[in-house]
Amino acid sequence: MNDNALPATPQPATANPAAARPTRPRTLDLQLIFSWLLADGIVDKTGVKAHFAQAQGILRNAPGGMHPLVAVAQCKLVSCQPLHRMMTLDLLSEWLASKVGLPFARIDPLRIDFTKVADVMSASYAAKFHILPLELTNDALVVATADPYQVEWESEIAKISRRKISLVIANPLDIAQYTAQFFTLAKSIRDANKTNTQDMALRNNFEQLVEMGKANKQFDANDQHIVNIVDWLWGYAFEQRASDIHLEPKRDVAVIRFRIDGVLHQVYQVPAAVMIAMTARIKLLGRMDVIEKRRPQDGRIKTRTQAGQEVELRLSTLPTAFGEKLVMRIFDPDVVVKTLPELGFPPDDARRWDALTKRPHGIILVTGPTGSGKTTTLYTTLKALATSEVNVCTVEDPIEMVEASFNQMQVQPGIDLSFSDGVKALMRQDPDIIMVGEIRDLGTAEMAIQAALTGHLVLSTLHTNDAPAAVMRLLELGVPYYLLEATLIGIMAQRLVRTLCPNCKSPDGTLNDDVWHSIGGAWKIPKPATIYRPIGCPECRQTGYRGRTGIYELLTVTEAFTQLVGDETDLHALRRQSVLDGMKPLRIAGAMKIVEGVTTAEEVLKVTAALA
């Protein structure tokens, strides 16, 4: 490579990047890319020839066509500019966009209506020119490309779509991956809609009260198009780290939504006819009654991710005004092998919790709203306790995750097998530790207390706002206070907060003094010197948050605490005593996560109540 022959760096295009078009000195090749890298000081003259030769070798030996930026990224260049960042493919793509004066776009599949954009061009046409339509509006079509100088397709697509073309630069590997996914899935949905179109009375909504038996034809849940769509849906949900998948029928179309890090995101809209077939397919795999659509049903599916990891899905259907709604909760079996610190327990609370769960008998309660991580905490605890020397039995509704080291039983109201009946049966199974899915009524509470009184360790859940309120809830159910004094040994309330993305969180955030006082002021916790704020990057899908962690309020029942439990129990007195006994309220636990740079004040305020 002759340094003297390097082409001059083209100037970025006009002041309006969205409408800009780069000048066209030549096709985008390695020589042009390395001349720009050299001109920008990303590589120096001493190393440019070696890197150029390495990239040429990678490009020459690559099977099929490889984009030159991919070859450069595989050289693992470290920028000579300050910060000395590794020049990943994303960084190189963003740098290329700045060089040619076009916007850079990270392709977020959750934000793209791929059936709509797939109508603009064929899959073969998109693959030929290495382009991908991203957004279609009334007057513009946004198209991602990795080669800003290959634009001979632009006038043709502008004429066909009757819209102005707006070019953006994107990661070439992302373009290739999503071109294959989007067009394949869009074709499956179109074909499924054609073959499965039938009388809309199948939606069984309240506006069209027509018998389902009068439909023109039945859906085939095993149709290959439907199989492809369901397989894609699961794979996509696993890839996006979704905890729940919602299939929701609406008036004209059906909506697919994922819950990611506690927040629902709309993924896609499909025709109502396709949604009915998808629901039938999933119910069939979950061994549910496909014909029955008038009452709620539960089911379970075990499948594998593309990486070969086993995943369980718990299914729940609900008849709604526009048809059958299906929710799939995704359980990762690896979650039960996490340690308490990995769940978010502070060291002190982890030690106290371990001490409680190693007691030979008594009742331990975990409280919190639905989706606050109670099941994960209990399963993690039981997994640690379930050695070959103890018999761990559970009664659940439904069984959340199947675990070989437990003896699990499911409540079945249809045959009069309730929680209290289940505990009564388990008492004859020589158990050491019993987990009751939820204490819902006096009968279940009485059986749990009976089990604790006869020398068993009982763990269960309640729905209360904080730990001390669990005592009031049991008293309201009718449990005598003296039985609580004899059996209750610990209560833990918990919530989940989103954690800041470690790849992009920034230490230049601000926090109003009044806001901090409302979080940690009562305990006089010093305001942290460094406040982290969410930024957004590809790793966190531009949200600034990745994953969730628990915040915990652990109440250890002491003699002083039990003396306050009686016929006239004062909740405020219980809270004051529990703090004296070492309990940190949920909001204080959240404040400590802010100090550690794990989460933000907004997240803590969202899930915790003000200190009384």
Indicate the structural class.
alpha/beta
Number of strands: 16
Q: Please compute the radius of gyration using only Cα atoms.
A: 29 Å
Number of helices: 22
Q: What average pLDDT do the residues reach? A: 85
Low-confidence stretches: 1-20, 198-219
Proportion of helical residues: 25-40%
What spatial order of strands do you see in the largest sheet? 12-11-13-14-10-15-16
What is the oligomer described by this structure? Answer: single chain
Q: Could you walk me through the main structural features you see in this protein, from its secondary elements to its overall organization?
A:
Helix content is 36%, strand content 20%. The protein is of the alpha/beta class and 612 residues long. The strands form 3 sheets. The chain has a 7-stranded mixed beta sheet, with helices on both faces. A 6-stranded antiparallel beta sheet has the order 6-5-4-9-8-7, with helices on one face. The longest helix has 25 residues, at 172-196. Residues 1-20 and 198-219 have low confidence and may be disordered.
